[in-house]
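Appendix B. Raw example, untouched.
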Amino acid sequence: MSWTNVAQTLSKEQQETVILSVAAQLDSLPLVVKRDRARLETEARPILTTMLGRLGFVANATLQTALLQQVIARVGGLGFINDLLPPARNDLSEIALNPDGSLWVLRKGAEYFDRLEAQPSLEETWRAIEALLAPLGRSLSEATPS
């Protein structure tokens, strides 16, 4: 029997505690690092490992990778969009979000959009849009929607 077979499983609340704790430590990073997902991952990985140990949690490699991706999504500001971008997904050509919050994707070579199950909150949507537009020197608001 290997150690990973007897390792504890983290509850959703414990996972959220880890994510918030690691994100708080990464909050002071410069914006250029926060916007570079590869650099952000390099910074976040050792902090995640340390935080798991500090909190007395054990997580296998798969869970650690999932937690790391959630930290990157939160700190980088991309949130729900992070999982739709490379390297996580290379099969999409467009991502669309309707005013009702429904999320749609157009797969490469497809003729029609497919609706996704995710329905991000308004706050999460604004945060992701700001994270996408900020490096371009652009902004979006209800007063200036385009």
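End of appendix B.
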